[in-house]
Batch of 4 targets.
Target 1
Amino acid sequence: MHKRQHKRYPKRLEVKFSSGGQTFVGISSNLSESGLFIRTKNCFVIDSIIDIELVMPDGQLSHLKGRVARATKTPLASFKNGMGIELVEKDTAYLNYLKNFSEETGTDAENNALPEFQIVSCPNCGVKNKVLSTKLSLSPKCGKCSASLLL
């Protein structure tokens, strides 16, 4: 099995991409130093070179160029349509964003200590609630019935 060279970061950012005079929008679902995945209904064919404009969280634009490495397009809504992009040109805004994000997440050993979120079933109604691990000590309440999630 092929191992990835660079760590992926699950970030949802607005993406505008174009090739051959056609421009579309999508959402990134993960980023890495060597590529990204764009969730979209409008896929270009494999090996197409595309221009990418990524809207960073601070509103700054990152301009990238990439090659479509794979495309997923199905009529079923349950599948995630989009394109895997291999980046051939990256700007400093993109590289700095990844660098800052990787520094925030720390080492793998630190990340494995606690998951970012935990799923807690409500003891009253049974609904599953997604709770930040850091908020578990603050007596979170069920999103449906408002009962305390901790006994």
Target 2
Amino acid sequence: MTFSCEVDATLNDFSGLAPLFPLPNVVLFPHALLPLQIFESRYRQMTADVLEGERLIAMSLMRPGWERLPSHAVPPVHRMVGLGKVIAHEKLDDGRYYLVLRGLARAKLVGEQVVDLPYRIGKVEVCSDMLSEQPAFNRQSRAEELASLFVRLFPGVNLQQLFLHGVSELPLATVCDVLLGSIPMASELSQQFLDELNVDVRSQMLLELLEQANSRTTNSLHRTFPPDFSAN
């Protein structure tokens, strides 16, 4: 048996509609910070509208094969998206924007609204995390194990840069998603973690990934922190 966790209180009055920002290589996890550079005209308008509205954007990963579509085609996206809120922005003199999104929740794309806009509007349902009623492991010990493996693989990253509080004070779901947002991996693999609503299963997937990377004793997962701005 599983039970649901509460979603971010910021979404209590969410309308259920959010601009879709499809990208081929970006997955936004809850609690993660995503810097973006906005330069296409349609997404400049999207950004202006977002800043006047709920300040929410649904980051959606394009499905494989998008690169073979004609330029005028609407690329298909995965149904699970990362719903993020603009927490910082700067408009440059040439009309571009720098944004920072904070991931709030996973959300399921259930449809798209027909609108006379140059960008897409998604109808989304916010998804709650699920927890097994009787997990086969201690969740706090699992969180600490994940953090320890992360530090071993990324010795240049101080976990205090990722967590405002100690790992011992955070739910396992938060630890998993913050780490997932900081580990470089193929976008389709990131999407698998985004799709998984059961926190216990997600933590096991992450543990196996980190253990495999650690056993290889290579620098294949090395990255700098914080990340650079992603370009649309």
Target 3
Amino acid sequence: MSDLILAVYGSQTAAFVAGESLAALQQEAGVEPEDIVVVTRSASGRVTLNQSIDLATGQPLGGGRWAAMIGMLFLDERKPTGRGQGLAEQLRSAGLDADFVHHASLALTRDGAAVGIHVRLLGVDRVLNRLHALKGNPRILHARLDAETEEALHDLQAQIPQSVLNQPDGLI
């Protein structure tokens, strides 16, 4: 079991401060690093991922796949294309709560930002307490992932091309 927590801010600065604070919380707790991503939307609507990096290797934590999946939550709910389901429907089919997916897709405003974290070891209460203690008054979205949903999300993550994960500016 794990959790996805999204903290949506009107200010990109507040989101980056929150991301740094969550990284510090991990260090203070002495747990294995969780995948943290700051997702920004520019004035033109472009979504950018700023993911947590393993300082020893320079690679994204979690291989960048959780960060990419969290970033995809903020894309508009896409209609199905001729060959399959739209992105939002695939996330719902994987077991993510439909309301969570819907609210996430609408949450990120232009010039806004959000922090997303996949929480396994750190604990939901610690993360939420840290976020609430920071300035910026974020809108919190939370989804609990049972083992079946997490496995289905891993299967979806495996479909993300490595070339997407290796983009230097994290655009999706």
Target 4
Amino acid sequence: MPKILSILFASIFLFACSEELEQKPTTPLIVTTSNGEIRFNVEVAQTPKELQTGLMHRTQMPLNNGMIFDIYPVRPTGMWMKNTKISLDMLFIAPDATISLIKENATPMSEDIILSRDPVRAVIELNAGQVKRYGIKIGDKVNHSIFNNLTTLSDSPAPAAGPIIPKGPNAPAAGPIIPKGPNAPATGPVIPKGPNAPAAGPVIPKGPNAPAAEPVIPKGPNAPAAQNNPAEPVRLPVPTP
């Protein structure tokens, strides 16, 4: 892979690696194009050795993989293809995370320097042909953890799980929705319904304006005999003198 060349440090030309490096763990990177979001899996080069070595001596790389160079502090940067055996597309990324320069199909093993001209925050290397394949252009937005602008579904908290409600022909009939909370109405008695429900009794008024209750008169064979209550007293005959 091209070795990163700082315009200010010529010593970077002196570093070389004789063995092919193993692939490092990758991180997600998304390029937002006019055709939609394109996702890549990229290794991150951050240490001086990683920045100088890049993808040198690699003989292959998975199709949608690549490498992003973490350039800090922001500065004009140069790349080359010395000791790099696979052709690459290079994307130079401005501090605002937009693509400022594209170099397609960089020649393997070439020592020609590819300059960014303007200060860049990162450089991305992809397999040659990916820029054309996905229609990536200058001005497209790059999303990666280096820019603190990568948000995925996994970053959002999952909604609280609700009750599992059975569905289908054998699911129980839905019941009424009963309000809950401090303002919910008081729960009344459950009144049986159906052919075996007891007959409904009379509605007895209640409250300060309800009529006075009449006495309960026992009835039946054991009830006491009714008392006479004549309308006027019985008069006895008066003897004559």
